[in-house]
Amino acid sequence: MLEGELPELYGRIGPAVEELKASGPWDSSRPLVEFYRRHTVIELWVPVT
């Protein structure tokens, strides 16, 4: 989960997704999800195998 103020928060999405993908096997045939809980909180979902 990422928390912060916009627009700085948007710049952290890519690196956070890359970190999640590097942490273990993930299913590249399924989509990555950005779930915006509120304008200052984003959950990142990476499908696992």
Beta-strand content bin? 25-35%
Given the C-alpha coordinates, what overall shape results?
elongated
What is the helix fraction of residues, given as a range?
A: 25-40%
Number of strands: 3
Radius of gyration: 11 Å
| Poorly predicted tracts of residues | none
The H/E string reads EHHEE
Can you give the mean pLDDT? Answer: 96
Structural class of the secondary structure composition? alpha+beta
**Helical region count?**
2
Number of domains: 1
Question: Which strand order spans the largest sheet, edge to edge or round the barrel?
Answer: 1-3-2
Largest sheet properties: 3 strands, antiparallel
Distance between the termini: 20 Å
Account of the protein in words:
It is elongated, with a radius of gyration of 11 Å. It contains two helices and three strands; from the N terminus they run βααββ. The chain has helices spanning 8-11, 13-22; strands at residues 2-3, 33-38, 41-45. The longest helix has 10 residues, at 13-22. With 49 residues, the protein is of the alpha+beta class. 29% of the residues lie in helices and 27% in strands. The chain has a three-stranded antiparallel sheet, covered by helices on one side. It has one domain (2-45).
Which descriptors apply to this entry?
single chain; three-stranded antiparallel beta sheet
